[in-house]
Write a structure and sequence with these properties.
Length: 376
């Protein structure tokens, strides 16, 4: 069995063995896939926490997330968007429409990098690909080919999970395409995340800021249709159901999040199935969300929450503060407040200022873990 619900909950454990996600069969330091990855998500749901997923665009941002996870001793998810993946491969490479070769290369390279370094950080990690709209399906296909090649060689997929975001399409087409891909992913026990209803705002060049308000809220019937379509193929899927979510960060109150709707979706499914909280939800557009809304989402079966905008700011702010503090040393290679002939190499060396960004982002990653009760 991929998950043992009889595992003790964190609330009942003694402090020395509080990290009971380690008791989920197969869980290890480094990248987890298949039953182990799914078991971590089920453990989160059973124990009232969720695992934050951070969009990464470089080895530096990946390391920031891993370092935070190491300091907390908690699992984390590293994810790549299509544009972020292309950036990892390098902006100098062609990334043709309908081919997306740089996005495929960057995501695969990023996943291999995480696999190489994550075990040294001593925590379980999931590697995920973020929103993939219909026009980006060549990217998805390329990553799945890499999964299948890795599976052939190692008995597991390269990635832990992938997201299809076909929320712009009719629900029937959305679910049909998800079924097709989940059928391909299921033999590898690769987890599918799908979106029903639309996350508003702008992310990675996709603008949903003008979407009709009612599209920001999914119905219980819509969510149940997803379960009915996907569960016979594999239970390893999560649903990003819309409850007013918006990408980006906004003034409190400008976005009306209704995470209590997730509870309604669960109740509807519970009545059909006779089991408690059968659905596994993902919280999109989590940046800037009020803490009580996050708590309600956790209570209603959210196992993963995406964080991007807030960690982007934190990464920049680390550099900003460093520049303001050391401005006099960053105006030329030679000459600073200590003398016209004094060298500044120790200040403009990228390792110095990139590290300041990493430390700042690391702190924000830890804050997200705390918000989601992903803490010991």
């Amino acid at each position: 069995s991929f998950y043992n619900p009889a595992l003790p909950s964190e609330a009942t454990l003694e402090a020395p063995i509080a990290m009971s996600f380690w008791d989920v069969p197969g869980v290890k330091a480094g990248v987890n896939t298949g039953d182990a990855a799914w078991g971590i998500l089920q453990h989160a749901k059973a124990n009232g926490y969720a695992i934050p997923a951070f969009n990464c665009t470089s080895t530096s941002t990946i390391n920031s997330v891993l370092e935070a996870g190491k300091e907390l001793g908690r699992p984390v998810i590293i994810q790549f968007s299509e544009g972020g993946a292309a950036f990892i491969a390098g902006k100098g490479l062609p990334n043709d429409k309908g081919v997306l070769q740089a996005s495929i290369l960057g995501a695969v390279a990023g996943a291999h990098f995480v696999r190489a370094v994550a075990p040294a950080y001593g925590i379980p990690v999931l590697v995920h690909s973020d929103h993939c709209a219909k026009k980006l399906l060549p990217w998805f296909d390329g990553m799945l080919e890499a999964d299948e090649a890795f599976f052939k060689a190692h008995g597991e997929p390269l990635f832990s999970s992938h997201m299809l975001d076909l929320s712009e399409e009719a629900d029937e087409e959305n679910i049909a395409i998800c079924k097709k891909y989940l059928t391909r992913m299921a033999p590898m026990k690769c987890i599918l995340e799908m979106e029903i209803g639309i996350t508003g705002g702008v992310e990675d060049g996709v603008d949903m800021s003008g979407v009709a308000k009612e599209k920001l809220y999914t119905t219980s019937e819509d969510v149940w249709a997803v379960y009915e379509g996907l569960n016979p193929i594999s239970p390893m899927f999560t649903i990003a159901a819309a409850f007013g979510n918006v990408h980006g960060v906004y003034k409190a109150g400008n976005v009306i999040l209704r995470p209590e709707l997730l509870g309604d979706y669960q109740k509807y499914a519970e009545e059909k199935l006779g089991t408690t909280k059968p659905l596994n939800f993902v919280f999109h557009g989590g940046s800037g969300s009020e803490k009580e809304k996050i708590a309600t989402a956790l209570n209603n079966g959210v196992v993963k929450m995406n964080v991007d905008t807030d960690t982007q700011w934190a990464y920049w702010e680390g550099l900003l503060k460093f520049y303001k503090a050391k401005e006099g040393y960053l105006q030329g290679q030679i000459g600073n407040p200590e003398g016209d002939d004094k060298p500044n190499k120790s200040y403009y060396d990228p390792r110095k200022w990139v590290r300041e960004s990493e430390v700042s982002m690391k702190q924000r990653v830890k804050e997200s873990c705390s918000d989601l009760k992903n803490a010991n």
